[in-house]
Design a protein that fits this description.
207 residues, six-stranded mixed β-sheet, two-stranded antiparallel sheet, 4 helices, 19% helix, elongated, disordered C terminus
Length: 207
């Protein structure tokens, strides 16, 4: 079991997958966030295939447990986090190639006899973090009136939502606009027509 994601090319056999079990501390991957707690070790399996001129194909899966805050009820809860990624490392002595290697690309470069997939693992886990964390799809959240957790107890606040829906808001500018439009419509309907607009059946106008 390896406690690092740095691998030595010399230990990888040609044309055959080499499998490693890994256990990594979250701090080694810089997984420290204010709203997410990586509280267990990161476990995983890494498969390496050496081919061509020391090209290394990497296939890995990692998992861990996280603790985060629900976006609706604000309680903390725990969740399993799993990630998979594939990448290929190519040997290069060009410093620009190595420095410009992006995790978003499927090809990376390495110089020397070792290569490191720590950043690849970190990015893969971060991408799996929920954008809007929920402790449950059925989470009721907090009462907008008194602030109690509706998952734990019933709210005693008066039900005002229905009344607000049925009764127009007199303080709303849109309510005043609607009243003006309605008034204008009634005046138009009641306004007598101009005599010049009244046309007789024979096609002549009555003056």
């Amino acid at each position: 079991m390896k406690d690092t994601l740095v691998f030595d090319v010399r230990n990888i056999k040609n044309e055959d997958f080499n499998e490693y079990g890994v256990q990594i501390q979250p701090s080694l991957l810089d997984l420290e966030f204010d709203d997410v707690n990586f509280y267990t070790v990161i476990c995983g399996k890494v498969q390496l295939l050496r081919h061509g001129e020391d090209n290394i194909y990497v296939k890995a899966e990692v998992s861990t447990d996280i603790e985060l805050q629900c976006g609706k009820c604000l309680d903390t809860y725990k969740e399993d986090l799993e990630a998979r990624f594939e990448v290929q490392f190519t040997p290069s002595t060009n410093t620009e190639d190595i420095e410009s290697g992006s995790v978003d690309d499927e090809e990376r470069f390495y110089d020397g006899e070792t290569f490191n997939i720590s950043e690849d693992a970190r990015q893969a886990l971060v991408l799996q973090l929920p954008g809007w964390p929920l402790c449950s799809q059925l989470c009721e959240g907090l009462c907008s009136g008194c602030g109690i957790n509706l998952n734990e107890e019933d709210c005693t606040c008066p039900e005002t939502e229905a009344a607000q829906t049925d009764t127009p808001d007199r303080h709303s500018p849109f309510a005043d606009l609607k009243q003006l439009l309605d008034t204008g419509k009634i005046e138009t309907e009641n306004k007598p027509k101009n005599r010049k607009e009244i046309t007789l059946k024979n096609g002549t106008s009555k003056t």
